[in-house]
């Protein structure tokens, strides 16, 4: 039975193990990441508390034009070619207050999509929710920075190659609740349709309910939960930076057991204006760059427009919406 590699972030061999896991699979577990199980239990508790609210309360913080807030069940369609209905999940998008270069107080900046304040549920309904999520966002930023540093060493790059790319905390914390509806991929019904992630990498925390699958060598393989570990996968931007040396692996969520499932992905993304172009070490005259340069923010906005029925904050051009 196949199992993803395990990267111990405290090990001296972490850079080499990480680089190999990225090249071979694009999916792996991350341990000794510095986020305690007690902290994760509280974040999951708060997430479940929000999703247990009535629909009117949830819809009062429905995602705005900057994609911050609640997204209802079936609103997202990740596999446009094969799904016959939206993902059987509801979610909640959280960005850093003032992210993507906006003012520190969270004011919206028309020149910077996705900027501005988050939407927060009522403190009376979910006490401590805002503080819990803000603290977790910063905590996960630190994990992502550390992991990116280890990866740069493992790939033989300048250890500081990603150093200036994440200063704006332009990441996304997303809370997800999957319904108990059993998936039927043959009929286009899935918890989350087959897709690649879009940024540098994703750090996923999940409960004990299985459902995540990755496509490797033409087969769908289960990625079981691992206690105390994050599940990490690579995104499209890393594939572009490394000219396909590292791949953004296709994955999906399939509900086989008829149980509800909760997960919390943290999408570790470069600054909005970061240019994603092939690193010189990964291209040559014999192996030219396979993708044109693209601004990270434009690429992400194009993906939001493609997959979210309610998102109309951006009209992508052909470069931003290209896939990998």
UniProtKB/TrEMBL annotation:
InterPro entries: DIOX_N, IPNS-like_FE2OG_OXY, IPNS-like_sf, Oxoglu/Fe-dep_dioxygenase_dom. Signal peptide: none annotated. Keywords: Iron, Metal-binding, Oxidoreductase. Residues 102-122 are annotated as: Disordered. It comes from the Eukaryota. Residues 169-270 form the Fe2OG dioxygenase domain. GO terms for molecular function: metal ion binding; oxidoreductase activity. Pfam families: 2OG-FeII_Oxy, DIOX_N. Belongs to the iron/ascorbate-dependent oxidoreductase family. This is Fe2OG dioxygenase domain-containing protein. It comes from Ectocarpus siliculosus (Brown alga). The lineage of its organism: Eukaryota, Sar, Stramenopiles, Ochrophyta, PX clade.
């Amino acid at each position: 039975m196949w199992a993803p590699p395990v990267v111990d972030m405290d090990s001296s061999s972490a850079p080499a193990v990480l680089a190999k896991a990225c090249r071979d699979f694009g999916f792996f577990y991350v341990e000794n990441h510095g986020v305690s199980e007690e902290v994760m239990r509280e974040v999951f508790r708060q997430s479940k508390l929000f999703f247990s609210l009535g629909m009117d309360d949830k819809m009062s913080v429905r995602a705005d034009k900057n994609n911050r807030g609640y997204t209802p069940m079936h609103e997202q369609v990740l596999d446009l070619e094969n799904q016959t209905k939206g993902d059987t999940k509801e979610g909640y998008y959280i960005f850093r207050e003032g992210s993507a270069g906006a003012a520190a107080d969270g004011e919206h900046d028309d020149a910077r999509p996705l900027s501005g304040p988050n939407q927060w549920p009522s403190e009376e309904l979910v006490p401590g929710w805002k503080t819990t999520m803000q603290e977790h966002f910063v905590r996960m930023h630190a994990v992502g920075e550390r992991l990116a540093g280890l990866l740069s060493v493992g790939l033989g790059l300048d250890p500081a190659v990603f150093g200036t790319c994440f200063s704006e905390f332009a990441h996304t914390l997303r809370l997800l609740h999957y319904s108990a509806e059993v998936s039927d991929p043959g009929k286009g019904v899935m918890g989350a349709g087959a897709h690649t992630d879009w940024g540098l990498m994703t750090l996923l925390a999940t409960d004990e309910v299985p459902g995540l699958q990755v496509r490797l060598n033409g087969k769908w393989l289960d990625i079981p939960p691992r206690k105390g570990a994050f599940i990490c996968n690579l995104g499209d931007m890393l594939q572009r930076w490394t000219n396909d040396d590292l791949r953004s692996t296709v994955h999906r969520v399939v509900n086989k057991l008829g149980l509800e499932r909760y997960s919390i992905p943290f999408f570790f993304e470069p600054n909005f204006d970061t240019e994603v172009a092939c690193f010189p070490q990964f291209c040559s005259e014999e192996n030219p760059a396979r993708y044109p340069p693209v601004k990270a923010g434009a690429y992400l906005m194009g993906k939001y427009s493609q997959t979210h029925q309610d998102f109309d904050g951006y009209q992508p051009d052909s470069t931003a919406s290209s896939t990998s």
